[in-house]
């Protein structure tokens, strides 16, 4: 049995924060933000809009586009670092209930910006082992809830949104996910973390404004470029695939300069590289499925085309995947 990437959906909240809005909030400029990150604007969820609310909207689209009925879904994995509730229940179980699914296996996965690639690897493993047939993977983030809007080094980067995909069992090898890499190195944990609120809290306020993100941006940037470049080169070599065979390089959308450096290392042409960071900012676990949805809805992503995904995030974690799109054309 193989695992096929059957469909994609996404949801973007309506409220927009532009770089000009940040000029009024912290000591920054539109020019600095765009030049250093490639970001012009990001979407922000409404006060009463939760990570599960956004995940459900993306999931409903993905399920509809898969041609399956909701009841065919036998597992939900939600990749998020901004869950509805930090300890329990999981956001995946809330998504299941909001979708009207009873007794489905549902759990969250914590791998920061690499969460969607990790979730894809989990879905693939459950399907290839025969344990599940149709797995809904959701990347949903309300990062605005864990962002310190007085810290100019991080607040300008992050946005909210959700993406979802249905991964299904198939006997057709041409549809199969080809390979997935996942890795981590906890020695770099302090580069990007939410230091408050957990059992390892290094703050004397374990509950108040818990979980805001702190990042050593410049050090993270250097490790990201080095790690991602090595990883995408390795996954292509191991599978005897040349970069010219990739129709869509869909990287995690953290910073245009990171995407450009990795794309250049693979000699990719501009039309092979998917860029959404300009309009969504960094939406962590949601960024890759949101980007796939963008090329799907614009008609750029066609059945049978090969995607190369790559991601890097807190942990540190990283991952890459070679994925043929096995869904219906829009
Ligand atoms: N506006 C103006 N100046 C700023 C801002 C701002 N918003 N933020 C920082 N600066 C200043 C700094 O204070 C510093 O000033 P100094 O030279 O006087 O000390 C100067 O700009 C340069 O700061 P750097 O941090 O060196 O800037 P850099 O070019 O590295 O860009 C950035 C910062 C955008 C954060 C970049 O390092 C980056 O993208 N890092 C990687 C992020 C990433 O990939 N994270 C992993 C995924 S996220 C996740 O997992 C949740």
Protein architecture, described:
The protein is of the alpha/beta class and 330 residues long. It folds into two domains: 2-172, Peroxisomal Thiolase, Chain A, domain 1; 179-324, Thiolase/Chalcone synthase (Peroxisomal Thiolase, Chain A, domain 1, 3-Layer(aba) Sandwich). It has ten helices and 13 strands. The chain has helices spanning 19-23, 30-37, 51-66, 91-98, 115-128, 152-155, 217-238, 256-265, 277-280, 287-297, and strands at 2-11, 15-18, 41-44, 75-79, 105-109, 134-142, 160-170, 179-184, 192-193, 214-215, 248-251, 306-313, 317-324. The strands form four sheets. The protein has a five-stranded mixed β-sheet, with helices on both faces. It has a four-stranded mixed β-sheet with strand order 8-13-12-11, with helices on both faces. A two-stranded antiparallel sheet has the order 2-3. α3 (51-66) packs across α4 and α7 (217-238) runs parallel beside α8 (256-265). The longest helix has 22 residues, at 217-238. It is globular. The mean pLDDT is 96. It binds acetyl coenzyme *A. Acetyl coenzyme *A binds next to α2, α6, α7 and β12.
Q: What percent of residues are in strands?
A: 15-25%
CATH architecture type of the largest domain: 3-Layer(aba) Sandwich
Quote the distance from N terminus to C terminus: 26 Å
What is the C-alpha radius of gyration, as a whole number of Å? 18 Å
Report strand order across the widest sheet.
1-7-6-4-5
* Domain module count: 2
Count the helices. How many? 10
The main β sheet shows up as:
5 strands, mixed
Mean pLDDT over the residues: 96
Kindly state the percentage of residues in helix. 25-40%
Structural class: alpha/beta
Spell out the CATH superfamily of the largest domain: Thiolase/Chalcone synthase
CATH topology of the largest domain: Peroxisomal Thiolase, Chain A, domain 1
What is the overall silhouette?
A: globular
Count of strand segments: 13
Q: Which residues sit in consecutive blocks of at least 5 with pLDDT less than 50?
A: none
């Amino acid at each position: 049995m193989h695992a096929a990437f059957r469909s994609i959906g996404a949801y973007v909240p309506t409220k927009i924060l532009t770089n000009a809005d940040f000029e009024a909030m912290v000591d920054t400029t539109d020019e600095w933000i765009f030049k250093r990150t490639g970001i012009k604007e990001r979407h922000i969820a409404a006060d009463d809009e939760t990570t599960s609310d956004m995940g459900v909207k993306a999931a409903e689209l993905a399920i509809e586009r898969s041609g399956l009925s909701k009841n065919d879904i036998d597992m939900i994995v939600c990749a998020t670092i901004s869950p509805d509730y930090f300890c329990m229940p999981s956001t995946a179980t809330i998504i299941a209930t909001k979708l009207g699914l009873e007794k489905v296996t549902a759990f969250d996965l914590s791998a920061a910006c690499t969460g969607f690639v990790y979730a894809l690897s989990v879905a693939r493993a459950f399907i290839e082992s025969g344990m599940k047939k149709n797995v809904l993977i959701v990347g949903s983030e309300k990062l605005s809830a864990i962002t310190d809007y007085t810290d100019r080094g991080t607040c300008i980067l992050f946005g909210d949104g959700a993406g979802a995909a249905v991964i299904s069992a198939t006997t057709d090898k041409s549809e199969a996910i080809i390979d997935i890499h996942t890795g981590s190195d906890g020695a770099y944990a302090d580069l990007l973390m939410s230091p408050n609120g957990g059992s390892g809290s290094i703050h004397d306020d374990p509950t108040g404004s818990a979980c805001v993100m702190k990042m050593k941006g410049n050090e993270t940037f250097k490790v990201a470029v080095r790690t991602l470049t090595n990883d995408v080169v390795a996954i292509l070599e191991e599978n005897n695939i040349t970069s010219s065979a990739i129709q869509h390089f869909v990287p995690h959308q953290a910073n245009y300069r990171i995407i450009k450096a990795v794309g250049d290392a693979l000699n990719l042409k501009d039309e092979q590289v998917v860029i959404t960071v300009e309009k969504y900012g960094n939406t962590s676990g949601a960024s890759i499925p949101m980007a796939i949805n963008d090329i799907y809805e614009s008609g750029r992503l066609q059945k049978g085309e090969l995607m190369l995904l790559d991601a890097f995030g807190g942990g540190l974690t990283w991952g890459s995947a070679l994925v043929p799109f096995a869904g219906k054309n829009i």
